[in-house]
Amino acid sequence: EARRTLEVVEKQHPDDLRTVVRLGYLDLEQKRFAAAEERFQRVLASNPEQADVHYFLGTARRQANDLDGAIEEYQRVPVDHERYLDARLQLAAIFERRHDYARALSEAESARQRFPSRQIDLYVASLRAKTGDFDGSVAFLQGLLAASPGDEEVLYNLGVLHGEANRQDDALRYMEQVLAKNPQHAGALNYMGYTLAERGQDLDKAEQMIRAALAQRPDDGYIVDSLGWVYFKLGKLDDALKELIRAATLMKEPDPEVHNHIGEVYMRLGKK
């Protein structure tokens, strides 16, 4: 109804840019990315200084997988604008997706210098590790931990960092510290449960931990994937396939590991 009303206004008053922008927002929400881009470009043609519109045009292009176009628009958001932080983090995410970790880190650092926060600190640490600076990333997180002893999120990220560096025993020790602080930490429960399943160890305990994580985040695709994988290890192939397919549908973007798991189940079922 909102769209129909605004389209009438747009038709009668095509120069009313406020209406055009609002329709562009609706296009974005309804995943009509080409229509959103056309409307945002129309607005910018007569008013190129609208940083909000550059930001949302970047978002439309990112959603349509035009990453170069998205980068161009996000870079037009000025440093003193309220969307600057979001724009820099979007740029970091695009560069990370392209495995250009050095540029991703540069963008995240830019955001962190202007808008310091714990979440950006943790993201910067993750990107440092991806550039190959594992020791620097650990030292950075240890510095955060020294400033906030027992911080469960820093401990969790240290665990993830060690896991990504194939130091699984160290990773599990950090996860145990997290669970000692917060036995209901969904991320740590899932990490430990999945790791046990991957190793084929104590599968009943693995399932219990993953279910405890899922009780808190029932629509988390990664946790649903873990449940499917523990079912696979237990030989419950039909249950595994059901959960793994659900995990794939919950992902915002296709995850190679989830699809690899689905393939493993089909192979075990003889459905080559």
Task: Give a written overview of the molecule.
The protein has 272 residues and is an all-alpha fold. It has helices at 2-12, 17-29, 33-46, 51-63, 67-74, 84-97, 101-114, 118-130, 134-147, 152-164, 168-181, 186-199, 203-216, 221-234, 237-250, 256-268. Helix 12 packs antiparallel against helix 13 (203-216). The protein is globular and about 65 Å long.
Helix content: over 70%
What structural class is derived from the secondary structure elements? Answer: mainly alpha
Average of pLDDT: 95
Q: Uncertain regions: pLDDT < 50 for 5+ in a row?
A: none
Shape: globular
Q: Helix and strand string, N-terminal first? A: HHHHHHHHHHHHHHHH
Query: Cα-atom Rg, whole angstroms?
Result: 22 Å
Main sheet overview: none
Please give the alpha-carbon distance between the first and last residues. Answer: 48 Å
Count of separate DSSP helical elements? 16
Residues in β-strands, percent: under 5%
Task: Give a count of the beta strands, DSSP E runs of length 2 or more.
Answer: 0
Brief characterization of the structure:
By secondary structure, this protein is mainly alpha-helical. 77% of the residues lie in helices and 0% in strands.
List the topology elements.
Blueprint: H1 2-12, H2 17-29, H3 33-46, H4 51-63, H5 67-74, H6 84-97, H7 101-114, H8 118-130, H9 134-147, H10 152-164, H11 168-181, H12 186-199, H13 203-216, H14 221-234, H15 237-250, H16 256-268
Helix pairs in contact: 1-2, 2-3, 3-4, 4-5, 5-6, 6-7, 7-8, 8-9, 9-10, 10-11, 11-12, 12-13, 12-14, 13-14, 14-15, 15-16
